[in-house]
Write a structure and sequence with these properties.
52% of the residues lie in helices and 13% in strands.
Amino acid sequence: MNRLALSTALAVLAVLAVLAVLAALSAAAEAADFHTEVTEAYMTGRFDDLTKLLDGATPKLADMTPEQKADVAYVRKAVAECRPAWWALCKGGAKGPFRPALWGKTFGAMYDPAGKGGVQMKSGQRGVTLTVSWKPEEMDSTDKGEYGFLAGDQACVGIWANLATAQMYTALPLQTLAQMNDRDKLRLNRYMSYRSNLAALYYSTPPGRRYAMHIYFAAFYYDNWGKSPTAGSRRAPCTMMMMEILNDPSRYPSLKLPDSLPDADAEEALGKHFKHSIKRDALWTIGEDRRMREAIKAFAAGSDQKVFQTEKVDLPNKLVFALDAEADTAYRPKRDAWFKQQFDRAAKGLASHQEEPPEHATESPAPDQPAPQLEYRVWTSANGRFRVEAAFVKRVGGVVRLRRKDTGEEIPVPLEKLSDEDKAFLKRISSSR
């Protein structure tokens, strides 16, 4: 082969290699775009759109990173749990029997769209019949609801809470209920409310979950919403969630802690803070949603029958929460001390991190060069529906590569999909070099 032919062959191979790289980048960018669509639809509660997206997910998976695949798998599992086949039937107004499942256990019930609402028990020759009812037109409704949430968010929380109540009734014979005195009925009511709240927190859509947290955290206003005999049934799950956050605040970057926490009534002060900071439009990352649901599920699995018998909840850090507010006064001081201590530790950790600037902090990476020092920040999509805490790694053409803080996974994101603030950040670090 002469030199001209060899040069031509090498040039062709070089062009083919470049085309292969560009094709791979394009496929990765398309996969990243699809991943963003899926996670946005999930985090904003657009489950009808999400179902259609998941139907076409398989061809896209091959070009996704392992972390992106894990996110899609998590979303698919959550949809299977939170939007089973009966949901569409009930949404269509079909009256009839169905078999919902909660915490891995299935039970039979009757859905009546024209019923009184809630759960009704009826005894007949064939035994006890459980009827649940809610308005089908409120399911997934985009009508305006309360506190900035949608009517569909509220309905979702109510549906899963009612189903949890119905499931618990299946384990209680009518004769036992009839023989209960007022004290026993109050104890049962607190237990059922507690378990129903956990179910609503786990099975609701992400916006529904935030709505549930918003109204449950209101129970820390002891002189107002917290006066209810069952207010402790709302405070207990919230206390668990606050402990989950304080155990490692870096795992929940969207749930900002207050600037300070008092020595007295630290738990109450933190609960009031989250009541006002958790909103529908204050989106979490999908990693935060996954971690919180896992924590709720583990908590629910470890606190069932004992709570009914004692009205006391064992918290993850070996502290105790009593559902009866008067009895809980004996346990609150220890929890307050834990919250204050853990908060101060977290604040010191964050402060020391901020006080120690990273090496080369004054140097900024060029768009197509690796960053010498990773600076983690929250990146947001252009429509505001997707957020991830990550560090800029490099930019190749129109694709920005970010390294996720929670997993260390490097992900490609199309530049055009980023918010104006993120684009301005990229421009600043490029021009400052």
